Amino acid sequence: MDGAGSAGTGEVDPAREPMRRAQSGDLDAFRTLVEMFQDRVMRVMNTVLRCDRAMAEDLCQEVFLRVHRGLPSFDGQVRFATWLHTIAMNVAISEHRRRRAQKRDRRTLSIDAPVAGTDDLYHDPVGRELDPGERAHQQEFLAAVRDCVRKLPDEFRAAVVLRDMESLSYEEIAVVLDLPAGTVRSRIHRGRVLLQQMLQEFAR
Q: Disulfide-capable partner of 56 in 45, 114, 189, 192 (CB 3.0 to 4.6 Å)?
């Protein structure tokens, strides 16, 4: 693969050049990758595991250690961000299983997700400022969404977050979750429907 695009998407992968330099042993380039993606990895850990910042930082460090070890064999067949998400989800799942083994009746997975059925919940409205009342209502709505997403069945939660919060494509989510693309689409759709049902009071 010549790396001009993002694994067939036609978009330039901003991580391509630092990733290639990091593969050649350039530590500054690897630090650039960490700076580009550490907030995203932290967000995955915080939302999937609902862990505190110290735990999220430890898990984030583990993710980038795995990335560093795996860089020489990364072939660029998927975007770097997709590969990174796969590693992050594997670390999160391992931690979840460890916690579940310790205390099986404790529900540890949660997701901090956007509004059901939209891919741009966290984008500010263009062209006007919200008045204080509207902004307060929006903040209340976002809090309700986060609470409802925490209640989603585990099988829907990760797919919804990766699509609506992390903006991965269906195909990329299929890679991350090791599921058929059709299953990913179904889980996202069903997760959004459940969220819409739980958030009916805000539809007025």
A: 45
